Structures are given as C-alpha cells and as structure tokens.
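During the no-cost extension, the postdoctoral fellow (Dr. R.K.) reprocessed legacy sequence entries with the updated structure-token encoder. One reprocessed record is reproduced below for audit purposes.
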Amino acid sequence: MPDLLILAAAAGEAAEPRALGLAPGAWIALAMLVLLGVALWKKVPGMLTAGLDKSIADIRKQLDDARALRAEAEALRREYADKIANAEKDAAAMLEHARHEADAIVAKAEADTTAVIGRREKMAEDKIAAAERSAIAELRARAAQAAAGAARDLIAARYDAGADKPQVDKAISSL
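Re-encoded structure tokens follow.
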C-alpha cells in the first residue's frame, strides 16, 4: 500500500484518509446501516405509523363532528325557516280575521244606527200623533164647553119656568 500512496502523491493527488481500512464513504454507509438497524430494533417505523394513524383518526373524528354540526345547523336553519313561514301565514290569517271582524263591527254599527234612527223617528211620530190627539181632544172639549155655554145662554134666554112644564109633561107621557 505504501506504493499507492506514493503513486497518488506523485500524480498530484492527495491521499484519502482511511480508518481500519475503510474509506470515508464506507464509514458513512456503515453509520447509516447502524442507524437504520437501531431504528428497526427500537420499532421507530411502528411508532411513526401509530402516530400518523392516531392523527388520521383525530382528523376523521373532527371531520365527523364537523359533518354532524353542519347537519344540525342545516336542521335548525330549516326549522327556523319553517317557523318564519308559519308565522307569516299566521300573521296573514290574523290580519284577514281582523279585517272581517272590523267589517262585521262596521256593518253592525250601521244596522244599529239605522235601527236607533228608526226608533227615534217612530217615537217622534208617536209624540206628534199624541200631541195632535191631545190638541184635538182639547179643542173638542173647548168646543163642547162653548156649545154648552151657548146652549145654556139660549135656553136661559128663550125658555122660562112656564115653557118647561109642557116639555116635561110630554117627556113623562112618552115614557
């Protein structure tokens, strides 16, 4: 071997250091083999796959939770949309009912007003008729009093006690 070193030095190249007869590249390869052997002996690939599997399981669980939350949110959205639609229908129905009630109240008020006016007109007519009857009765009574007074005055002026006797006798004989 010393000949090789001399030849390499003569050629202008530097001699590569060696330890235990192995070149630096061989030592690197040997270190890698030892490192890989220790990693396999300590089951590092199993730990790595277990860690990755756990991470995958966690991510799947999070995705499932997210899907469940999304489904729940969709259900709540549909429920509230249905409630809003029902509330709008109820409000429209209540408004229509209120309109019908208002129309009925107005119609009843008009009918009541017409009835009250009719009753008051009848009462006024009855009062007028009663006043007319009262006036006619009073007029008749005054006329009767005037006629009786006039008859009394005529009888007092035309008839005396002697003229009454023949009429009384005539009335008695006709009985």
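The two ends are 203 Å apart (CA to CA). The mean pLDDT is 84. The remaining legacy entries will be reprocessed before the final report is submitted.
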